[in-house]
Amino acid sequence: MITPVLLCGGSGTRLWPLSRKSFPKQFVPLVGETTLFQASAQRMAGEGFAAPIVLTNSEFRFIVGEQLAEIDVDPNAILIEPEGRNTAPAVLAAALWLEQSDPSGLLLVAPSDHVVPEASAFCAAVQAGTDAARAGQLVTFGIIPDYAETGYGYLELSEAPSTQEMTTVPLHRFVEKPNTAQAEEMITAGNYLWNSGIFLFSVKTIIEAFKRHAPDLILPVKTAVEKSKPDLNFLRLDSKAWTDVDDISIDYAVMERADNLSVVPFSAGWSDLGGWDAVWRESEHDHRGVATSGPATAIDCENSLLRSEDSGLEVVGIGLKNIITVAMSDAVLVADASRAQEVKNAVSVLKEKQANQAVAFPKDHRPWGWFESLVVGDRFQVKRIVVHPGAALSLQSHHHRAEHWIVVEGTAKITIDERQQLVTENQSVYIPLGAVHRMENPGKLPMVLIEVQTGSYLGEDDIVRYEDTYARD
């Protein structure tokens, strides 16, 4: 069996404002109806695949669990990294964890934010690499390029790959991201592939590779795995041991130093969606090269992307050429398509301005559901809160604010101090400042309420938790 390892701890700032630190691109439906993370999990499921191992951080753990449940994928394990240390420690942790139960198994390591339109072709490529992986090769997957891309690293082969037969070929060397002239030369040469960052190897082979090429990682990562502790349905790697782990990628730590490398050339379509220009390429266009999403209207436009992520916000473009426009409820991006990679610079500028939009998503996702601020004043705030069926907020109180709750969909079970009551649609309750309270959704459909906060301080850190179903601090 092949055990997929999904890496989903990063944040893609090049896809701001839709991708942000609090809710990055892998959890967003950028192309198609499912999120990139869900599509990745589905692509590596079914015959020949075991349940996946997911590497993520504490902030995303409930999002990971919720999105897997939505597509009926039961993970082998969700490992929580105490802090990001790049891909090498994450891959080693997954290998050491699987070694305990399947020491002869194969690992298929993949980022969770890539687009591969042809899932069957991808599975065929994986099967083409399995014999080499079982024979002790470190197999990577190279994408046959169709244009000179400067945002990817490259793989140099000894000769041009065959497009007729899917099989493994020897890898000559890794090449760093090139400039435009170098990328064009490599495309002309014909023996270079894009480095997809997807790998296939046996548990034994990758652990031996780490021992040989990155021995300093072995002890702290092994200790972090051995001392890991269950947390609800997750497994927390030991934080003390993890502080001694180097921040290094799998490419630098192992792949660029190893001599047992093979490549499966792949030509059936792939993108890491590294910018809005890539999203435009992967989207459906009209006859003038215009791609729209959501309530967006293009009039006399060419080669442009217009997206509205808010059902109540209509985006209209007139006479646009090579323009990217992405609108959300709290931020709008307008950029020349040729400068799409500079969006990350805009995020840095917003951080310097201390703009909340730089990192915070309009919808704040929690294990019980999500909320969004509708109106914010000096001493009041209005929120929409959505609670999943059977879910409950923590039993809590506030030092600085009182709250009014109005149920607009479903039924809420409300606790205020010693009293409990059911509140249905069009009914409301008042929670005085300092009262110990909780809301629950006892129904089978999402419960929606409007919360009106009043007080001298309305920050999310004004919460004293007494009980919490999700074991948060």
Describe the SSE topology.
Layout: E1 2-7, H1 36-43, E2 53-57, H2 61-70, E3 77-81, H3 87-99, E4 106-111, H4 119-134, E5 138-143, E6 154-157, E7 169-175, H5 180-189, E8 192-202, H6 203-213, H7 218-226, E9 229-231, E10 234-236, H8 239-242, H9 250-255, E11 261-266, H10 276-282, E12 291-293, E13 296-299, E14 305-308, E15 315-318, E16 323-327, E17 332-336, H11 343-352, E18 363-366, E19 369-376, E20 380-387, E21 395-397, E22 401-409, E23 412-416, E24 419-423, E25 428-431, E26 437-440, E27 447-455, E28 464-467
Parallel strand pairs: 1-2, 1-4, 2-3, 3-10, 5-11, 12-14, 13-15, 14-16
Antiparallel strand pairs: 4-8, 5-8, 6-7, 6-8, 7-11, 9-10, 16-17, 18-19, 19-20, 20-27, 21-28, 22-25, 22-27, 23-24, 23-26
Q: Which key phrases capture this entry?
A:
473 residues; alpha/beta; Spore Coat Polysaccharide Biosynthesis Protein SpsA, Chain A; Jelly Rolls; 3 domains; 6-stranded antiparallel beta sheet; 5-stranded mixed beta barrel; 22% helix; globular
Can you describe this structure?
There is one protein chain. The protein is of the alpha/beta class. The protein has three domains: 2-266, Spore Coat Polysaccharide Biosynthesis Protein SpsA, Chain A, CATH 3.90.550; 282-352, no CATH class; 363-467, Jelly Rolls (Sandwich), CATH 2.60.120. Helices cover 22% and strands 32% of the residues. It is built from eleven helices and 28 strands. It has helices spanning 36-43, 61-70, 87-99, 119-134, 180-189, 203-213, 218-226, 239-242, 250-255, 276-282, 343-352, and strands spanning 2-7, 53-57, 77-81, 106-111, 138-143, 154-157, 169-175, 192-202, 229-231, 234-236, 261-266, 291-293, 296-299, 305-308, 315-318, 323-327, 332-336, 363-366, 369-376, 380-387, 395-397, 401-409, 412-416, 419-423, 428-431, 437-440, 447-455, 464-467. A six-stranded antiparallel β-sheet has the order 18-19-20-27-22-25, with no helix packed on it. A five-stranded mixed barrel has the order 5-8-6-7-11. Strands 12-14-16-17 form a four-stranded mixed β-sheet, with helices on one face. Helix 3 (87-99) packs across helix 6 (203-213) and helix 3 packs across helix 7. The model has no long low-confidence stretch (mean pLDDT 94).
